[in-house]
Amino acid sequence: MIVTVLGALLIPALTQARHKTRLVQCASNLRQLGVLFALYAQDNENMLPVRHQWASDGTTGLSWEDMLLPYAGQKLQPVDYKTAPANYYCPAFIARNTQKSPRVSNGFATSYVCNGYILRDRINYPATAIQYRLAQFQDPSNTLLLTDGIPYPGSAGPAVSTQNETRPSSRYVGYDMHEGRVNVLMVDGSVKTLSPTDNGLDVFHTDTGRLYY
């Protein structure tokens, strides 16, 4: 009887501690990714990377998560879940994910999704794309760069959708991985823990611009 009572008291506490540990580790991952973005910008005229580089035949080349690899001590190459650095994944996502595949086309390169307003696609590489310089952001501490999310399993480069996105399968956006909370990396490298409806996070599919730029 005593053991049963103690178990009933300890299990919720242990579960809560596990959730807290994952939340803290996820925030640490995002801070490290923020450093990689800053290092990339230093080497590229203070510009953020593009979201995807698309060839004229519709195939995808490098994505933002690939372009950060050299700053994480790895070779510049397309990355999937087998080769991605550990900090590319939220630990809560790893605990939940049962869909990983050894094929790159179905492997998740990262569990974090980018702000599709500020990381744009480049078509027919090496054609130019809209790339934003860090100095262009009026409020970088409140401009979303990456967030916890659910990546689209048909692509290794997920991004936050907008209201212009017509493919339901691509609307895999900010997600509360942490018991009702979401970790968010801002353009200035800071990390915030919010609820899904804080500061406009409930408007991922609208065009209000809040938290975007």
Give an overview of the whole structure:
With 213 residues, this protein is of the alpha+beta class. It has one domain (34-203). It has helices spanning 2-43, 64-67, 91-96; strands at 52-54, 60-63, 112-114, 122-123, 144-148, 182-186, 191-194. The strands form 2 sheets. Strands 3-5-6-7 form a 4-stranded antiparallel β-sheet, covered by helices on one side. The chain has a 3-stranded mixed β-sheet with strand order 2-1-4. The longest helix has 42 residues, at 2-43. It is globular. It starts with a helix and ends in a 19-residue tail after the last strand. The model is unreliable at 98-107, 153-172 and 201-213 (pLDDT under 50).
Question: TL;DR of this structure?
Answer:
This protein is of the alpha+beta class and 213 residues long. The chain has helices at 2-43, 64-67, 91-96; strands spanning 52-54, 60-63, 112-114, 122-123, 144-148, 182-186, 191-194.
Helix content: 10-25%
The tally of beta strands, per DSSP, is: 7
Number of domains: 1
What topology, given as strand order, has the largest sheet?
A: 3-5-6-7
Low-confidence segments, given as residue ranges, are 98-107, 153-172, 201-213
Which key terms come to mind for this protein?
single chain; 213 residues; alpha+beta; four-stranded antiparallel sheet; three-stranded mixed sheet; 3 helices; 12% strand; globular
